[in-house]
């Protein structure tokens, strides 16, 4: 898959260690009333800006493992997504502040760890990404498990810079 093959060293910063999760009902609903999740120590969003491409990855700095990655050709408005899931999935289910989207996905074995990478395409203008841009957190549903990826205050500007680069 193009997304995984084009990982730059700067985007290989994110870690795979488990984030806060909570089991949910079989048909998960958006968690708008749950409030914003707290950032997790040592986990954050990391940006990579190149003249033709921008990337944003969630994980541990100086690690070669990725939890969630967003990439775009600068100015395109199109996103390539990759998320590490426990099992292969046919969709990538994202949520931020009550907005939720499900994207058709292709999965492949993660290789370096248990699980699978799910890859999908999206648009920066999709409500879930606009909410992520405003709130600084996004959740990935992995079956019945919800994993939240919240920015530390110092990385909120990088999230905005990423979306400005992608447009």
Explain briefly what this protein structure is.
The chain is built from three helices and ten strands; from the N terminus they run αββββββββαββα. With 167 residues, the protein is mainly beta. Strand 7 (99-109) and strand 8 (116-123) form a beta hairpin.
Arrangement of strands in the largest sheet:
1-10-9-6-7-8-5-4-3-2
Query: What is the helical fraction, as a range of percent?
Result: 10-25%
Number of strands: 10
What is the beta-strand fraction?
A: 35-45%
Whole-Å distance between the termini?
A: 24 Å
Overall average pLDDT: 83
What's the shape? globular
If helices are DSSP runs of H or I spanning 4 or more residues, what is the number of helices?
3
Q: What's the Cα radius of gyration?
A: 14 Å
Structural class: mainly beta
List the secondary-structure elements in sequence, H or E.
Answer: HEEEEEEEEHEEH
* Poorly predicted runs of 5 or more residues: 1-33
Q: Please give the domain count.
A: 1
């Amino acid at each position: 898959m193009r997304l995984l093959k084009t990982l730059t060293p700067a985007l290989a910063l994110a870690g795979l260690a488990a984030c806060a999760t909570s089991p949910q009902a079989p048909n998960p609903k958006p968690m708008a009333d749950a409030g914003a999740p707290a950032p997790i120590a040592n986990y954050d969003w990391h940006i990579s800006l190149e003249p033709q491409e921008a990337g944003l990855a969630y994980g541990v700095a100086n690690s070669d493992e990725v939890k969630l990655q967003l990439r775009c050709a600068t100015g395109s408005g199109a996103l390539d997504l990759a998320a590490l899931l426990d099992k292969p999935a046919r969709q990538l289910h994202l949520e931020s502040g009550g907005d939720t989207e499900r994207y058709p996905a292709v999965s492949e074995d993660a290789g370096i760890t248990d699980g699978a990478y799910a890859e999908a395409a999206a648009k920066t203008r999709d409500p879930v990404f606009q909410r992520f841009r405003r709130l600084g957190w996004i959740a990935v549903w992995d079956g019945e498990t919800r994993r939240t990826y919240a920015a530390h205050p110092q990385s909120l500007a990088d999230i905005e810079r990423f979306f400005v680069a992608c447009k």
